[in-house]
Structures are given as C-alpha cells and as structure tokens.
Amino acid sequence: xxxxxxxxxxxxxxxxxxxxxxxxxxxxxxxxxxxxxxxxxxxxxxxxxxxxxxxxxxxxxxxxxxxxxxxxxxxxxxxxxxxxxxxxxxxxxxxxxxxxxxxxxxxxxxxxxxxxxxxxxxxxxxxxxxxxxxxxxxxxxxxxxxxxxxxxxxxxxxxxxxxxxxxxxxxxxxxxxxxxxxxxxxxxxxxxxxxxxxxxxxxxxxxxxxxxxxxxxxxxxxxxxxxxxxxxxxxxxxxxxxxxxxxxxxxxxxxxxxxxxxxxxxxxxxxxxxxxxxxxxxxxxxxxxxxxxxxxxxxxxxxxxxxxxxxxxxxxxxxxxxxxxxxxxxxxxxxxxxxxxxxxxxxxxxxxxxxxxxxxxxxxxxxxxxxxxxxxxxxxxxxxxxxxxxxxxxxxxxxxxxxxxxxxxxxxxxxxxxxxxxxxxxxxxxxxxxxxxxxxxxxxxxxxxxxxxxxxxxxxxxxxxxxxxxxxxxxxxxxxxxxxxxx
Length: 487
Hints:
This protein folds into three domains: 6-126, no CATH class; 173-183 and 291-486, 3-Layer(aba) Sandwich (Rossmann fold), CATH 3.40.50; 208-274, no CATH class. 41% of the residues lie in helices and 16% in strands. The chain is built from 18 helices and twelve strands. The chain has helices spanning 17-22, 28-43, 57-70, 72-75, 80-99, 106-124, 128-136, 146-152, 155-169, 172-180, 236-239, 247-256, 310-329, 353-363, 374-384, 406-419, 434-439, 469-473, and strands spanning 185-186, 197-198, 208-228, 260-274, 285-286, 292-293, 297-302, 333-338, 344-348, 393-398, 423-427, 442-445. Helix 13 links the parallel strand 7 (297-302) and strand 8. Helix 10 crosses helix 13. The longest helix has 20 residues, at 80-99. The N and C termini lie far apart (77 Å). 32% of the residues are buried.
C-alpha cells in the first residue's frame, strides 16, 4: 500500500495520532496497529492481548499489568474519552524511558515509568467507578471528551446528583410516571370493554341501505377508451405525436375536434341512507380514544424559594428521572426551570455534554426567589406548537404555591384541544392549591416529602391525611376548572 503504515491512522481518533506516530518505544507500524487493538479492547471493557505490545514487549508489558491491576479496562467500557486518556498517558510514560537513560538502566527506567503510571491513575481513578456508574444512566458518555467528562465530575455537582439519585430510588412511582409521559407509543395494556361509551341519540337508529352513484368522466376507475379533448387523459400513442414534425399538426386537429384517444374514467360513490323498511339495529358505541404513552416530554420545574429544602431534593430527583428515562428510550426531554419574573432557564436534556452540563448545573443550584408560572406555561405551549414537541406531555413539579392567569389557562386549553396535550403535576407539598388544580389534568402527590430534607434513606412523617384539603374544608372556593379533580 502506497501510504503504509499511515493508513492505519484512519480508524483512530486524532487525539491518538501523535502518540502512535512519535512515541520512542517499539516500531511505528506496530504502534499504530496495536493502538487500534488497545482502543477497541478498552471500549469493550477488556484488557488488550499481551501481543499488542507496540513492538516492545519489555516496555509495554509492565504498563499493561498496571492497567489490569487498576481495573482501568472495566472503567473505560463504553467511555471513549477514558479509553483514549489511558492510551495517551501510556504513550507519555513510555516516551520517558529514553530520557531516564543512561542515568538509569533500561529495566530500571521501565520500572520507574510503570510505577509512575500506576500512581497517577490510582489518584485519578479514586471514586471514578461510582461517578461513572451514575453518569452512564444520564447520558451517552461516548460523546464526551476527557475535559468534558472531568468537568461533569465536579465534586459539588456530582454529590448533589448522587444524592438525588439515592432519593429517586425511594420514589419508584415518580420514575414510572415520567416513563409514561408523551404520546408516541400505544399503551401496552388492553383497554377494558366496559370503557366503550354509547353514542348519544334521541331515538333508536333506523336501518340503512347502500346507495351507489356513478359519476361518468370524474377521476376514478378506468373503464375503457373514449374520444376527448383533455390532454391529461390521452393515451401514450397520442402523446408521441407531439414530438413528430408532421404528426403534431394531426394532434392539434384531433385536440380541437375532441377526438383524442383517451382513458375513460368514472367515480363511484357509496352512500349510506336511512331505510325505513329495514329493521332497527342496536345502538352503536363509540370506541374510546387509543391510550398513548412514552414520547417526548417537557419538565417545568419550580425553583422558587418555597421549594427550598426537601421539595428541592424531590425536584432534583425528578430531573434525574427525566434524563434517565430520556436516555434509556432515546426520547426528547426539555427542561424549563422557573422562579420569579425574568428567572427562566430552558435547556434540552440531550445525551451529549450540553444536556449533562444543564443537569449538573441544576444539581448545584440553590432554589430561591418568587414564582412566575405564566412565563413557563406560555413557553411550554410555544414549544408544543413546534413539530418536534407536538406529541409531548407537560410535567409540572411544584409545591403549588402559585396562581395562573385566565389567558395562560386558555392557551393551555387550546393546546389540549389541538394537540392532545396532557399536563401531569407532581405535588411536593401538603395540599392541592387552586393554581395546581386549574393547570393540571392529574396530580401525583409525594406525600412523605419531608423525609427528603435529611440524608438519603432517613425517615420522615407526614401529618396530612389527604392532599385535597381545599376541597374538603373549602369546597366553595373551587373554580369550575379546579372542581374537575373531585371525582
């Protein structure tokens, strides 16, 4: 091959080109070939074979043993940035061997660089397994560079995300609710037959008979060949005359006389009409709309000051659940975090660095300020009008301490009527407020929310027996929209 051995650079990422080309150990052709072997083995979570030694078994063998002893192959499974960083570090330490000589013998230099390599990765790998286990469920780690991966492992944000992950383990109903959001797939469970609703009618429907109507010449079934003056129906034998210098004159004459050979068509209409002579039939029933679930979804997260403490922890657990669900099923997820007027953060929780950064930024954020629900509701409705989010459901996580203007509620109703939008509420508080009742179609109550003010796994007690305290003690205060939840 004319460009051998450099053709072996093509399957390698550019971050490994320099080490594969200039490292002062082994042979260039072997280094390039074995670098690809090492990378694929590490991505699969395996230790590379012993014969992938870059052309210098004596120098590479001790570093391979260090990789196995530290368990770096298992850590690098599916994490391209980590696999490449292991290889770059190996190249750097292998290149030091020549610089340590002749002060040290070759064997002593190899032993020193192997020890330095192991000491460096012992420090970097400390706690790395737990952090990667969390991040594997929150994004596609193969899309992150090493710098982005290290940034995602910021101790403060990571600790908050880890705590939220522990709290989420105690909220399986919340995870199940988020998994069902959206309207892109059919619901797996069969609908009961009793769900069929009879069609309203003033009297028993009479029988019907079929009436067939034929419309000659109308677009429809081809019934034969006829003469016509309509070029769009002419046969191919007529059309070829248009290209002939003499026959095109004949075509024009036939067209003027409506004598072009053409397809004869007829439309057949089928009409059901009432037949008084037919016996009456049983009343028809309307099949209920097909239940849909699992599609794109939008999370509106209340980050106001009233959410500080335990509600904040539940809210962060909901965001962790949203990103996990989106990652597991490749679903689109949009986060709209809102507080007071002008405090709105919108980010798509994608699989790459941007989505993970948005999540971790929220994990490290403190909740404070006021509550402005109109802006996030209006923004969510705007996004639902976009083609990508028309099958999305809206999840509102809040303590309910807000009110919504009639204009915003009307825009929400319009989106419900036009797109089938559903609004699910997660109540992190003691009672349903009028604002929450008016906005949401259904409300999931996190009754024991106080327990999440403590360390993950701590117990807590809720003194409230029902979330519907307003309906129980102040039924007259419910608006028409809010009263729909009293069933």
